[in-house]
Amino acid sequence: MVSNQIQLQRRRLLASGAAVTAAAIAGCIGGGGSGDGETFHFTQEQSREENFDPVISNDAYSFQVINLVFDGLYEFDEGLELQPKIATGEPTVERDGTRYIFEIQEGVEFHNGDEVTASDVAHSFTAPVEEETENAPEYDMIESTEVVDDYQLQVDLGEDPYGPFELQTMAVTVVPEAVRTEDRDAFNTDPVGTGPFEFADLQENEYVEIERWDDYWDDLEPNLERVRFEAHDDEAGRVSDIRAENTDAMAGIPNDDWDVLEGEDGVNLHSAESPSFMYMAFNCNEGPTTNPEVRRAIAHSFSLDDFIESNAANVTSPMYSPIPPVVNEVWEFPEEEYQELLPEYDPDEAQSLLDEHAPDDFTPTIITPEGIRAQLAERVATRLDEIGYGADVQVLDFATLVDTYTTGSADDYQMYLLGWTGGPDPDFYLYSLFHESQAEINQGHFYEGSDGFHDAIVEGRNSADQEERYDIYEPVIREIVEQLPVLPAFTEDNTMASRDYVEDLQAHPEVTNNPPLITDYTNVSME
C-alpha cells in the first residue's frame, strides 16, 4: 500500500504549475482557427505525463483528456457537487456510513461494445490500491467490494466512515476490467472508455487526438467531431497563438495579458474559481516564527489585498481561511468572520510587535517557487525592510523547495510559499496541510496546535455526517486563522481564452474538468 505522502504530493502538484514535469513544447502550436467544426484545437498550459489509464494517471493535464474518454460513476456538475453518471442515483448507505450500495445503469457500453458491469466498477475502486499506484490513498479506506449482481455493487469501508467519500471518492473513473488487465501498458496509451469521445491518435510529447463516439450510450451528442490537445508551457507563446488564431482555445491566461486579450477582437475569455489554496506558511518548529506574535507582525507588515490588486487581480481571488471560497459555497463556514480575525495592514503595529518579540537582527528567510508566489515573497521582504527588518527571499526550483521546506529547520527558512489543490471537502486541506502526521511530508510549519486540534481533524474525516463535521471543523479553521501557522493568501482561477467562433465554452472550477466540451450544461461547437 502506498503512503499518504504520494496522495498529498499529487494534490500539491496540481496546485503548482511548476511541478508538472514533462518536457516543454516549444514553438507555434499550429492547427485550429478554421472554425470548420471538424477538429477543435485546445492548448494546455502544462505538458502531460502521457498516462491515460485513470488507475495510474496522476497529472491534471492527462486527466483533461481522460475525462472526455471515460465516464465516472459520479461526476461533478458545473460546480463541485457530484451527480450520478454511470450510477442510477444516490447510493444506499448502511452500517453507520461504512457501507455503500451502488446501482449501475444497464446498457452503458465501452467503446469496444462491452457492457459496463458492477465488476468493472469494483475493479476501478480497488485496482489503484492492489497495484500500489500513486492514486492508492484515494481509495485505501475501502476494505472490500462485493459484486451483488451485474448491476449492483457493495463497497465496505473500514471500521470508521470516511468523510470525503460521498463528496469525491464516489467519482471514480470507470475502466473495463478485462481489456485493461489484458495489457495494461497498451491500455495506458490506447485506452477504452465509455465517454463521449474515443481515443484516436497519440504522438507523445506532441499531441493527442480524440474523436466523437457516435454510439455514445448517453443522450448527449457532442457537436465537435475531433479534438486535439497540445501543450504550450510558455505563457507568451500561448497568448501569441490565440491572438494569431493558431489555436481555437487555450488555458492559463497570464494576469498581465488579461486586459490585452479582453480587448482583442475575436477572442473571448472564460474564468472559474478553483479549489486551490495559496498560502505563506511559518516555521512553527524552530526560530522566532514559533511565536504567534511574530507571525502576526509579519501579517501586519504588508497588504495582501494591495498585492492581489496590483499583481493578480484578473486571475485570483483573496482567501481568508484554508478553505477555498468555491469549497466554502458547499460548507458555508463564516468567511466574513475569518476575514475580520486576520491582521490588517498596519506597519506601525508590525514594527511594534517585532521590536518586542523578534531579535534585533531579524531577517527571515523566505523560500518560494518562481512566479506569483515569488512576487509575493518580494513584496513581504520590501515591506519588512521599510520598517527596519527585511527578509532574504530564495527562489528555488520545485524539487529543491520540497526537500527544503519539510526539514523544519530555522537555518533553512522561517517562511515558505506554496499552493494546494484539493476538492470539495475540508479534509483535503485540514488533514493534508495541518494534521501532525503530515509534518515532513507535505507541510513544514510543524504546528503543535491547541489540545484536541489534531484529534478534531481526524474525528472530522472519520464522520459521515456533514453537519457534525461542520461543528468539528469550524473551531479548527478558526484556530488556524487566529494563530497563523499559515497565512491564507489567494485562490487561483481556472482561465481559458477562445476564438469567437467557439460557442458554449465555459471554465470549470476543477482543472481536470477543463475544457468541458459536452455535459448536461454545455455542448461546445465551432460555428
Automatic annotation (TrEMBL):
Q: Which GO terms describe its biological process?
A: peptide transport
Single GO cellular component term: periplasmic space
Q: Where is the Solute-binding protein family domain?
A: 81-438
* SUPFAM superfamilies membership: Periplasmic binding protein-like II
InterPro entries attached here?
A: Peptide/Ni-bd (IPR030678), SBP_5 (IPR039424), SBP_5_dom (IPR000914)
Q: Tell me any Pfam family this protein matches.
A: SBP_bac_5
Ordered alphabetically, the record's keywords are: Signal, Transport
Could you cite one Gene Ontology molecular function of this protein? peptide transmembrane transporter activity
Q: Which family does it belong to?
A: Belongs to the bacterial solute-binding protein 5 family.
The name of this protein is: Peptide/nickel transport system substrate-binding protein
